[in-house]
Amino acid sequence: QVQLVESGGGVVQPGGSLRLSCAASGFTFSNYHMHWFRQAPGKERQLVGTSTSDNRPLVQDSVKGRFAISRDNAKNTVYLQMNDLKPEDTAVYYCHVYHLSRNFWGQGTQVTVSS
Q1: pLDDT in tens, 48-86
Q2: Neighbour tally for 26: CB within 10 Å
Q3: Cα dihedral 40, 46, 48, 51 sign
């Protein structure tokens, strides 16, 4: 019954911004760390950032300074704010939670950065 639904992806020009959302249901959202991953064609899925249950934002060095992660527990939603987007950010972005010893993923949302 855990469900994660991403939205907010699209096509943007280099230097542009997007805000991704992940709406969660089926568990007590506020008790769990939430994660954003991305996967580019031909590459391994990689961690982008984490929002802890106490709302500590953690992003990987590769996107630090451009991306920010946050959550709104009242809305059961975790966000990924992406600024100064670069072509190498092009990927499918996935929301993730580790719940009761299982990994759950959203369907993914495509982000394409191209001029």
Answers
A1: 999 999 889 899 999 999 999 999 999 999 999 999 999
A2: 13
A3: positive
> Helix or strand or coil: residue 78?
strand
Q: DSSP state, 32?
A: S
CB atoms within 10 A of CB 106: 21
Residue 39: what pLDDT? 98
The DSSP letter of residue 11 is: E
Closest to 95 (Cα-Cα) out of 29, 12, 43: 29
In 4-103, where does DSSP find H-type helix? none
Question: For residues 58 and 68, is the Cβ–Cβ distance under 8 A?
Answer: no
